[in-house]
């Protein structure tokens, strides 16, 4: 059973997302949204580290475009957010940062402004066992792309306290990630992203089990139907009018409703979906650029390449050839 916490509680989510409706009969399930949101992150760069710190450690993690988490392996402290009261974090707890908001860790309640920037990157191993130990993982979208609107709709920080007797697989997953961080070896380019993916998915599933709330957009049958069409057929020559008909709304009403619930206008969202899918195809297939362009809704590879460069700041060809290192 997940114990409620003051950061990212269902009540806090309702406060953040007033007007949300419980989804009763939509065509996109929460699991589908979680899968798609995490899949979008794979065009980014994976970072991971294991850290041991003293009981007096206090640090602030700066905001970024991405999604991350902290797992407390040993010790306790306070999770600090700019949008909610401090919450105590104990061994076994998982803090998810669903859209890269600034946050911090402290031995006692405080404000973010009181915390110094946390040291980043590789640190010398401690000479002796320290009282606080945690692992951290993050996907950074440093070269374009954006966190999925579903993740942006969540509170700045989610804190869950798994019951590891019921969530034995999560314990095994954490142990595997610890080993992967401690002993990187051949295959790490595959295992590290896969383990971070699984941590994000499991944590989001645990969080979703604590609340009946859902993404605003999925609580509206018309907007949910339009999203389904965009996700299933991004290559279709969609227009705002056509999507509006799918949603059973006028062009103006649809644009207003979609922008309010999703957080971005319909055509901006469509372009983002097309380019994210194109990025996945570039990374995961050897299909020619012209075929990928058609598959994601562009008439020519030149049109696709231009849009891709505007979004990611790099040509499709260079993006495909680039191999991201696994960083700590």
From TrEMBL:
Keyword presence, DNA repair: no
Top-level taxonomic group: Bacteria
Keyword annotations of the record: DNA-binding, Transcription, Transcription regulation
Domain HTH araC/xylS-type: from-to ranges: 224-322
Signal peptide (from-to): none
The name this protein goes by in its record: AraC family transcriptional regulator
């Amino acid at each position: 059973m997940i114990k409620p916490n003051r950061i990212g509680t269902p009540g806090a989510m309702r406060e953040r997302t007033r007007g949300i409706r419980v989804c009763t009969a939509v065509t996109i399930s929460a699991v589908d949204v979680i899968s798609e949101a995490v899949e979008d992150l794979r065009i980014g760069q994976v970072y991971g580290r294991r850290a041991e710190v003293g009981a007096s450690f206090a640090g602030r993690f700066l905001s970024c475009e991405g999604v991350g988490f902290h797992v407390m392996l040993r010790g306790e402290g306070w999770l600090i957010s700019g949008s909610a009261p401090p919450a105590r974090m104990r061994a076994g707890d998982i803090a998810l940062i669903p859209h890269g908001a600034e946050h911090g860790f402290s031995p006692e309640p405080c404000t973010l402004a009181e915390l110094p920037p946390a040291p980043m990157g590789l640190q010398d191993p401690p000479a002796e066992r320290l009282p606080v130990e945690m692992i951290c993982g993050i996907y950074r979208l440093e070269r374009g792309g954006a966190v999925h609107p579903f993740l942006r709709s969540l509170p700045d920080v989610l804190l869950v306290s798994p019951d590891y007797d019921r969530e034995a697989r999560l314990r095994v997953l954490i142990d595997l990630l610890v080993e992967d961080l401690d002993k990187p070896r051949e295959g790490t380019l595959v295992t590290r992203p896969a383990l971070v993916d699984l941590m994000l998915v499991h944590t989001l599933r645990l969080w979703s089990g604590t609340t009946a709330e859902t993404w605003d957009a999925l609580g509206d049958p018309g907007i949910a139907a339009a999203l389904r069409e965009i996700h299933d057929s991004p290559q279709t020559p969609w227009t705002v009018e056509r999507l509006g008909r799918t949603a059973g709304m006028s062009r103006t009403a649809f644009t207003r409703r979609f922008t309010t619930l999703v957080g971005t206008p319909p055509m901006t969202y469509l372009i983002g979906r097309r380019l994210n899918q194109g990025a996945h195809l570039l990374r995961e297939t050897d299909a020619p650029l012209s075929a990928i362009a058609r598959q994601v809704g562009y008439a020519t590879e030149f049109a696709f390449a231009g849009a891709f460069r505007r979004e990611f700041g790099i040509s499709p060809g260079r993006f495909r050839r680039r191999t991201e290192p696994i960083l700590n």
